[in-house]
Each structure stands twice: as C-alpha cells, then as structure tokens.
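Supplementary Methods, section 5.1.

A reviewer requested that the exact input to the structure prediction be made available. We therefore reproduce it here, unchanged from the version used in the analyses.
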Amino acid sequence: MTTPAGQLIGRAAAVLRALSNVPDAGASTSELARTTGLPRPTVHRLLVSLAEEGYVDRDQRSGRWYLGPELYLLGEVAARRYDVTRHARASVHRLAAATGESAFFSARRGEETVCLLREDGDFPIRSFVLYEGARFPLGVVSAGLVVLAMLPDREVDDYLARVDLTGRWGEAHSAAAIRERITLTREQGYAVNPGLVVEGSWGMAAAVFGRTGEPDWALTLTGVESRFRADRRPELGALLLKEAHALSHRVTG
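The structure derived from this sequence is encoded token-by-token as follows.
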C-alpha cells in the first residue's frame, strides 16, 4: 500500500518526467496536468514546491515551466556512478558510421526505456521515432522489446499481466503479440520493430547488460523499411550484438 509520502513523491516524479519530455519548449501548468493526469491545483502546488528547491524553473514572461538547475547538479553527481554514456558514445558512433543509419543508446528506467544518445549516419532519409529524451514502455520500439525479452520469465509475465499497451499502441502490442516477438528476439539475440509505431519506420536493438546481469540499456539502429530488408537484417543484428557485447564488457569490467 502506497503511503501519503510515497504518493507525493510519485506525483512529483511524474511532473518531472513530463517536463523532461519537453526540455526546450517547457510546459504550462495545464499541459502538465493533462500529461500526468493530475488535477491542475495539485500540479501547481507541486511545481511551486519544486521551484523553491531549484528542481524546476519558471519563465516569468511566458509562465512556462522548465527543469531546474538543481537537477543538473544532482545529475552530475549521479553520473559518476551510473552514467555509461561516455562508453556508449563510441559504440553509437561506430554503428552510425558502419551502417549509415541512425544509432541510439537507451537506458532502462523502471518499466520504460529512455533514449540518451543519438547519432545519424550518412543515409539521407531519417526516422524520427526515437530522439534524445524519448520514453517508451517496455515492449514498445525495439529497445523496449529487447530489454523486456531479456528479463526473466516471471518479470515478463508480471509486466504483461499488469500493463495494457493496446490502448495507445494498438493491437500489435497485445500481450500475445509481444510474447511472439519476445520468443523471436530471444532466438535471434536482437529485437526487430517492423514499423509498429510509425509505419515504414523500422528499428533493431540489442541489450547491454549491467553488473547484476540485468538488461539495463540497449543499442538501437533505426531507418526506413527499405534499409531493413530481410537479407540485410542479419548483418545489422551482428553489428548490434558485437557492440552490445563489447559495451557490456566495458561496463561490467
């Protein structure tokens, strides 16, 4: 049972996550209320309290809210232990250079994946499903699928029993459909998203494992469907697995 203090922290975290999805544009109080599903007065009180501590900032002219400087300082401290992007940046660069596609590095955060890095290759047509800061539930997009697939069966079963992804993401994300893709992902070692989020925009991902043996991150390639033909996917998958294995070794070593 969630305590009142736990509920308060959860609501504040929801507001901060909503702001993190619009880092440049900021958001109004009403927009944050709609995004989080919280009452507008509750969101306003949370924002005022967070602003007093420096976790959010408000543009006095526009009234829009932004993430605050205190989060940057906390992030700098946390990065010393958790940030692996300095290792991942080289892998992302090599994948983009070798394939011509857009390459990404995402982190698992609870039951979501969050895109941390992006680098575009030299192929002129882009897919914009993924971008730095983008969040997706586990099981959605190739990064979310590969992370979910590499979890123990009991965690997969628990997640799929609790979460309904069809409301937002369509019947292609039913529990049965996701289970089929999990089976294929485990067989191949990498996940394939055949344009299930945006038609014609394909993605492939391989999991990166942390010290506990959990799939904590993912490397992804995305592009247009014609670049992910059946005869090319094994080559792309092999590149992803090579970089994911090397990155896992660097992180755990």
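The chain has two domains: 4-73, 83-252. These observations are discussed further in the main text.
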